[in-house]
Amino acid sequence: MGRLSKWVDGRLGAALMIWGIRSNVIRVPPNRMRFVNQRFSLTRRESVRDIIGLMRHAPDLRPVLAAASLPKFVAVREHDLWPLALHRRFAQSIGAKIAVYRGGHSPSETSPHQMSRDLIALYAGAG
After folding, report:
1. pTM for this model (two decimals)
2. Both ends of the chain: CA-CA distance in Å?
3. What distance in Å separates the CA atoms of residue 74 and residue 4, rounded to the nearest whole number?
4. How far, rounded to the nearest angstrom, does the alpha carbon of residue 70 sit from its chain's CA centroid?
């Protein structure tokens, strides 16, 4: 879906994303699908549209992030909405460590223990 995002507006991007998630294209377990469907029942489509629109017009903060002297970490899943190569280039451009977790889009939700472990190691290594 992420590959299509540069050719569609926020409204269509949101519709495509919601369709892809609800149709379970990446085949997540039943418990996850119940959670996702419940979350979408409580989320206005306009909110998703606005988020997609904002993401398409976000300022390029890579130089600012690269200049920051704090530890940086990019956490993604192997089947994210955007290509892994894009996340890798972003992490490299800002001088961040990247971790790729198994599964779909949200590592903080589906791999919280592994992500916490990696963040603790990042902070511990920062001195």
Report:
1. 0.73
2. 39
3. 22
4. 21
C-alpha span between 118 and 92 (Å, rounded) = 17
Q: Model confidence over 33-67: pLDDT tens digits?
A: 888 888 888 988 888 888 888 877 889 999 999 99
The b-or-e profile of 5-40 (16+ CB within 10 A means b, else e) is: beebebeebbebbbeebeeeeeebeeebeeebeeee
Count the Cβ atoms, other than its own, within 10 Å of residue 127.
5
Type of residue found at 79 = H
CA 73/CA 120 separation, integer angstroms = 11
Question: Between the CA of residue 121 and those of 3, 30, 87, 89, what are the distances in Å?
Answer: 32, 32, 20, 22
- Structural domain boundaries of the chain? 1-58, 61-127
Beta bridge partners of 75: 99
